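Hi team,

Filling in the usual template for the complex we talked about on Friday. All components are listed, including any nucleic acid strands or ligand strings, so the model treats them as one assembly.

SUBMITTER: L.P.
PURPOSE: interface mapping
COMPONENTS: two
RESIDUES: 709
SEQUENCES:
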Amino acid sequence: MAEIRVENLRKEFGAFTAVEDSNFVVEDGEFFVMLGPSGCGKTTTLRMIAGLELPTSGQILLGGENVTMRRARERDIAFVFQLFALYPHMNVRKNIGFPLLAQGMPASEIRQRVEETAKLLRIDHLLNKSVSGLAGGDRQRVALGRAIVRRPKCFLMDEPLGTLDTEFRDLMVHELRELHNRIHATTVYVTHDQMEAMSMADKIAVMNHGVIEQFGTPREIYDRPATMFVADFIGSPPMNFLGFGGGLARGAKEITVQGARVAVPEVREDIAPADMALGIRPEHIRFDDKSGLRGAIYGTEYLGTTQIAAVETADGIIKARVPAEIRLNPGDHVGLSFNSARLSLFEKKSGRAVRTSIHDLASQGRVHHG
Amino acid sequence: MADVRINGVTKSFGERAAVSNLDLHIADGEFVVLLGPTGAGKTTTLRLIAGLEKPEAGRIHIGGRDATDLEPAARDTAFVFQQYSLYPHLSVFDNLAFPLRSPARRFSEEAVRRRVEDVAKMVRIDHKLSNRATKLSGGEMQRVAIGRALVRKPAIYLMDEPLSSLDAKLRADLRLELKRIQAELGATMLYVTHDQIEAMTMADRIGILTDGVLVQIGTPKTIYTEPANLHVAARLGQPAINLLPTGLLPDADAPMGTKTIGARTEHLTIEKAVNGHADGTVDWVEHLGDQNHLHVTVGAKKLVTLTDPDTDLAKGDKIMIRYRAPLFFDAAGNRITNR
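RESULT (copied from the run log):
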């Protein structure tokens, strides 16, 4: 296994810049997810790491070795497109062993490798079964086995779960992460699905228009989004924004939103008067009759243990995640108060987050999967 | 709008019963969601009501009238399919107006315009009325498809996974809109899906369909808090309910005959173990952002619950776990209700 280092990586297609001077390091054994909407440059980045696309400039180091101009097959990586395709006429053993057979490995060694891999995936009891009779989860495991049997330096995966329905996808997300916990293979995983990213990644890079907007642990990205784009892309429902005006002074601990005073994390920089936005995660909102910030219930969504309440305010709808026991009816007037310590502030024009006391702890960000 | 009553309806395809002896009453103005996996009989139920399939047994009444033998056109239903099928050569306006311009209906062009504009506003497509249908994003196309059903005021709207082809964000927006529109119109709606979130968030009542049989029907809250059996319990809730054998933890006065204990987050008290008495170990705290999952091992079983984002529990911590009024299931998998 190996570290992947990407330096000033750039890719232009004619006048269009698909990837703009990317820099990041995927540490040995890390599960790294590139997350973003379609067209953001995540797949192009992955293809350059794989050697399926040559960069316009910049370099890629795999385990310390410069592989930028090497062919794909000289890079010792495994590229997993979709985890679905199996050879229907072969049994489980032959499906898993196929990549080794193609490499010309001796049969006895293949046998041993296949059995080890099957044990790792807990499908060793199925080795002589036909793949057409397998349940969906076992089919996926066989497909995974075929990818890992070669023991490459790293795995590259491009939306491997894209075509699965939701329930099955949740299952595979956990399966993939558990497998990673067992084999610790350096993995680069591309998706547009923030739940997949949050569930599996050690580190996430959120991309937009060819630029990495933020690189960090899932927790950092969720708790301290660097831009409004990141704040909106992550979370379900995403972060709410309420506009406010005026500048901010270093040391400020309060702002005025829709005529109401709102306590915020202490501001750490001076900002000239501009259009600003207060960012609030749905779970950091409470209903509070004493609050000056008012709204009316637009609708609710029952989720069992919690519910999502959509509240119409003077500045549009904001969504709150509150306990399911609270009785709410459309049209009810409510006051809103926030968990002040967890709020974000943004400059609307640039979308950039204002430095506040929430960033003081940034360097101590906790490790995601322990 | 009208009520729909299904009595003892059975429909088979070859040997396989797609729907077995189904009884279902959808009240006037009610939003009922049928939830089940692929092949449970959801779409067949919709098609039976629409008249696209004929039942072998049973009757279907729409608005008090026996519709079992009526042709689809005579039943006054509106169907929204999973794959939006718009007329590609027509504008958004003309797509929406199409059902009103049928010769059987005879609306004045002025009445058509008013109705189309109202509905376009409702589904938030009014800024694109003159666009070609093909010049729209997927989400916009599906809103037009839903809008085209809404321009008519049929006895019942039948919707077959209309949101499943959309991306997550748009789905969340349209969920809320659809529920609001349905309430505004007082529409009778039967909606089928395999997505538990859609069922929970939109339905007045959810029907759980398995292998053509309606296993339970009730409000989302009833289905979530009082599931009839293990199957229903496992269908709703994220993270999924923990189903544990008796004897794994102190059994909280389990009634006679209990085989399995069902525990969601709200049915468990978890604390750091003191005095060396521990029931289990924390595997990891999974920060999903809006939710935080606590993964725990108890004996040979794994549990997952929601936890506070700032929990002080961490990997490797020994913990004490107690039930708090959990659900009890017997050997057949049915919930034991008489305590």
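MY TAKE: DSSP finds eight helices and 20 strands in chain A. The CA atoms of residues 35 and 206 of chain A lie 5 Å apart.

Thanks, L.
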